[in-house]
Design a protein that fits this description.
By secondary structure, the protein is α/β, with parallel strands linked by helices. The protein is built from 14 helices and 15 strands. The N and C termini lie far apart (83 Å).
């Protein structure tokens, strides 16, 4: 049978692009101008990264950088990996993807479902650290014969894909009436490629980045944050700063809150980076007028975040929500206030501290188990790399010359959110006697078993 005259794609790669747009009527109902979402979840890999993936592989094949039977190796937060895996499946390549440990388990499983190998690395390390996912990917390329790294952070075919496809689609779909374009920036490919195209069509169009707090694009240091797949801790060469007119920092809490709101009110199951972009778009639109038209790009769906943002247990544990299910409800926050007036400063150890310094800190604060974290306060949960106990340090103190806290690192303390019911913490006593308290994803203090028992006893006395 001849299929050429039928409306049937020859391969899944022909389905990339031509994504729809929809007005966000409910969450933007009180704003002076329309806010329109460009929905990239209809790409076969479920995200905008399919566009860059095929562009980078096409160019690599043309330039002879990727040969038949070769292996594609790339550091990714998930979506680029899926796009590359789809291209690889069609063209007979193997794939090895390197991810950080903050990426959701669903994303790791998804890449493995495509037959790819996945290597997970710590996220709370510097980009040039041998353990970072950038360094690990580079090492694997050197060790793997006939391999190719697309290097999405520095590959000009990344922004080129959006200059040639995403930008023209937006211009055509809005009939050239777009006045503001909002998107997140990770590699910078989308914002740079789309921005360049739109600016060439109309130099007055504003190109706006919605960026996680702490990301370098919004003036941060690149310290870890919880939202995935957006923001960065270094400046990719694919990011064109001259294209961007405004950057709006968005907190993890606002990103996650917006993600859930859009999903529940608009019926669009979106991911955390989409929440970041929409939060930025709504902040921007508040100061515009009825003649403006804001387009916000939604890079992926929420299917990869069901164990995190859409999991009430995870959200409560990370301090983003509470589980107040009782009139007599007492929370971890109540216990923290009972322990000290106001929120006590978090006491933690740096991995490079000497054993004597660590023991002194423990003695001064009368606590026998402390978290170990990198960076200065306020730290994020992603910067906590483990814990250490007084017992372990004392037993090794006589032979500790030249050794530091990191040499005796133990698993991280049990996490509890400020909104958790204190009864849930009591149930954890058989697993741990020291707890790290989180508020909106940031560690704020340590609670011990005795702190909790004193609070529970005091609360019961008040009820008698």
């Amino acid at each position: 049978m001849e299929l050429s005259d039928l409306d049937i794609a020859e391969s899944v790669l022909d389905l990339i692009g031509k994504t729809p747009m929809v007005q966000l009527k409910k969450i933007a109902s009180d704003l002076p101008c329309p806010v329109i979402a460009k929905i990239e979840t209809t790409n076969p890999g479920g995200s905008i990264k399919d566009r860059a993936a095929i562009s980078m592989i096409d160019a690599a094949e043309k330039e002879g950088l990727l040969k038949p039977g070769g292996t594609i190796i790339e550091p990714t937060s998930g979506n680029t990996g899926v796009g590359l895996a789809i291209v690889a499946a069609q063209r007979g390549y193997k794939c090895i993807f390197v991810m950080t440990d903050k990426v959701s388990e669903e994303k790791v499983s998804l890449l493995r479902a495509y037959g790819s190998e996945v290597v997970v690395c710590p996220g709370a390390v510097e980009p040039d650290d041998p353990q970072s996912y950038y360094s690990t990917a580079e090492r694997l390329v050197k060790e793997t014969p006939n391999s190719f790294q697309p290097n999405q952070y520095h590959n000009p075919n990344n922004p080129k894909a959006h200059y040639e496809t995403t930008g023209p689609e937006i211009w055509k779909q809005t009939n050239g009436q777009i006045t503001h374009f909002v998107a997140g920036a990770g590699t910078g490919g989308t914002i740079s490629g789309v921005g360049k195209f739109l600016k060439e069509k109309n130099k007055d169009i504003q190109i706006v980045v919605a960026d996680p707090e702490n990301s370098v694009f919004s003036g941060g240091s690149g310290r870890p944050y919880l939202v995935e797949g957006v923001g960065e801790d270094f400046w990719p060469t694919t990011y064109d700063q001259n294209i961007v007119d405004l950057t709006i920092p968005i907190s993890d809490a606002d990103s996650f809150s917006m993600t859930k709101m859009v999903t529940e009110e608009e019926g669009l199951l979106i991911g955390g980076s989409c929440g970041t972009a929409i939060a930025g778009a709504l902040k921007l639109a508040k100061n515009l007028n009825e003649d403006d038209l804001v387009v916000v790009l939604l890079p992926d769906s929420g299917r990869g975040y069901l164990s995190k943002i859409f999991n009430p247990i995870w959200m409560t544990k990370m301090g983003f929500s509470d589980n107040n299910d009782s009139l007599l409800y007492k929370s971890v926050h109540d216990a923290v206030k009972s322990k000290n007036s106001g929120t006590p400063e978090l006491v933690y150890l740096n991995p490079e501290e000497t054993i004597s310094s660590a023991l002194k800190t423990m003695e001064e604060n009368e606590i026998s188990h402390l978290p170990v974290a990198v960076g200065e306060m306020p730290i994020s949960a992603a910067e906590v790399i483990g814990s250490v106990s007084k017992e372990i340090l004392i037993s090794n103190s006589k032979n500790s010359d030249g050794l530091t806290v990191k040499d005796f690192l133990q698993p991280p303390l049990e996490l509890v959110g400020v909104g958790e019911n204190i009864s849930n913490v009591v149930k954890l006593f058989d697993k741990s006697e020291t707890f790290l308290v989180l508020d909106k994803g940031r560690p704020i203090t340590v609670l011990t078993k005795s702190d909790v028992e004193d609070f529970v006893s005091e609360s019961e006395n008040l009820l008698d």
